[in-house]
Amino acid sequence: MEKFNASEHPHLRYNPLKDDWVVVSPHRAKRPWQGQVEKKAVEEVPRHDPKNPLCPRNTRPNGKVNPDYKNTFIFDNDFPALMPDGPDPPKSDDPLFQAAPAHGNCRVICFHPYSDLTLPLMEVDDIRHVIDTWQSEMINLGKVNTWVQVFENRGAVMGCSNPHPHCQVWASTFLPNEPSVKDRTQREFKEKYGLPMLVDYLNKELQKKDERVLLESAHWVWLVPYWATWPFETMLLPRRHVLRLQDLTEDEKKDLCQMMKDLLTIYDNLFEISFPYSMGWHGAPTGKFLEEDCSHWQLHALFYPPLLRSATVKKFMVGYEMLASAQRDMTAEQAATRLRALPRTHYKHQSSQ
Ligand code: H2U
């Protein structure tokens, strides 16, 4: 019998955070592609578009005028998915027809006044404003909400509705599905093994750095998780045990600015485009959880890019993925090797050097 080789042979990998499995089919990356090809995103974005509702000084469709902001600008989403007030659905005894209250706040954070910038093209000082804003939003919204989800959709392919650099914050009085599962899995891990899952995981990844670790700084480690599902999915972890984004120290935040710039530059350099992704932060829940022991949690940022083999070929999570299990076509280690080989100078700045 042939010896198992992870970069040749199909196998399953366990995601201990989500308590599920991903099918890894490394040999499939070689297959020819005649399916859908995405349009290459238009890279020419004007610095200021008088019609763009996220630009400084412009009037949004609801008549509100944006200030002449110089770094970040935060406002309540004009089309919020969740609202702080409103009637609750009636309780039901029928297990098949259950509903529950859903309240919350949705906010939009513009990162910078210039529409032609993205996080990797911004100065580290400007990225610092974004991180400080994430922290203040987490603190304010976390007082009454159980979960505050900071997330950025970048690129039309990920549903981003506006080219201006921005992210969203959705805060809810309930714990959504993903963090709810992660709360359980991390709690059970700590009870069983005595330390937080992701603290243990990072220690182990750092013992074999050449496999999945991509970048290290004084306070942060960027890696491809062993159980990654999306082709170039990655995770960013603090070295220290940190429960929430708002607990980061000055030094950790300063270091995070450069780390974000570097890792997002590497992403852009992979296919020499403004790399599409959904990213977001997961840390211990807030609201009533602020008073509870959440030491099983470890803060982490997640990056889910949809592209597979080029700027225009996307990984589809359809068919088998919808009906059976998530599946990927190359191993986490193969993705790490490709990302690790890329320069930290943005491709838009390389020719001028
Ligand atoms: P996305 O690009 O990730 O869709 O985020 C943009 C958000 O900005 C979106 O949720 C909001 C949309 O509702 N928005 C406003 O609140 N007001 C506007 O005038 C434009 C967009």
Automatic annotation (TrEMBL):
A Pfam family the protein falls into: GalP_UDP_transf
Entry keywords, A to Z: Carbohydrate metabolism, Galactose metabolism, Metal-binding, Nucleotidyltransferase, Transferase, Zinc
Top EC class, one word: transferase
Pathway of action: Carbohydrate metabolism; galactose metabolism
Molecular function, one GO term: zinc ion binding
Entry annotated with the keyword Nucleotide-binding: no
Annotated segments matching region Disordered: 28-67
Residue numbers annotated as active site: 166 (tele-ump-histidine intermediate)
Sequence ranges of Basic and acidic residues compositional bias: 37-51
Source organism, top-level taxon: Eukaryota
Any coiled-coil regions, as ranges: none
Keyword hit for Transferase: yes
Catalytic reaction annotation: alpha-D-galactose 1-phosphate + UDP-alpha-D-glucose = alpha-D-glucose 1-phosphate + UDP-alpha-D-galactose
Family: Belongs to the galactose-1-phosphate uridylyltransferase type 1 family.
Name of the protein in question: Galactose-1-phosphate uridylyltransferase
Native source species: Plakobranchus ocellatus
